[in-house]
Amino acid sequence: MVCGLGEAIVSKMYLMTGVSGSGKTTFAKKFARENNLRYLNIDNFYFATFGDENTHAHEFDVWMMFYRAIEIASRDDVDIIIDTNSPTISNRDEIYNWFGHMFTESYMIFIDAPSDLCFKNNSNRGRVIPRDEMMKMLRTYESPNKTETLKWDNIYIVHNNNNTFSEMEEWF
Predict the structure, then answer these.
(1) How far is residue 11's CA from residue 106's CA, in Å, rounded to a whole number?
(2) pLDDT in tens, 22-76
(3) pTM of this prediction?
(4) Three-state SS across 108-151?
(5) Are 151 and 157 in contact (CB under 8 A)?
(6) Contact partners, residue 53, CB within 8 Å, separation at least 6
(7) Among 41, 54, 50, 136, which Cα is nearest to 81's?
(8) Which residues contact 85 (CB under 8 A, 6 or more apart)?
């Protein structure tokens, strides 16, 4: 995309990934403020639709609204951060395949946190995920891998140690 005087517009898309309770939302909100990003969180769409973020009815429709907001951001030429856990490679691929071409640069930020911290953070938030579901998430979560770097411009890792975040580092 080009501005009136031939200046190219660079738009960036960041995707948050990590297990529930890892600190993705805390990090993403701060990162969005500090970098003037449009913050898009799937839970906000459930809240706007149903009055609370715990009701996950009509999932397809809510996700389509969420995806539409990402598309609108791309047309607005703004940088965005997408806050959803994206636990599997196929979840992350879907977001990249739908939207990666709409932004000049696409990045993934992986929040790495110890499981005991994830359980602690989960128990202290409004939308508490049952323990058995948390156990399943921890067992089945697929961390970003080297193959994903073929699509994404860069994959970063942030370590969450007792809700203190490290600096972003290149993951691969």
Answers:
(1) 9
(2) 999 999 999 999 999 999 999 899 889 988 877 788 889 999 999 999 999 999 9
(3) 0.90
(4) EEEEECCHHHHHHHHHCCCCCCCHHHHHHHHHHCCCCCHHHHHC
(5) no
(6) 43, 44, 46, 47, 126, 127
(7) 41
(8) 16, 17, 18, 19, 20, 24, 137
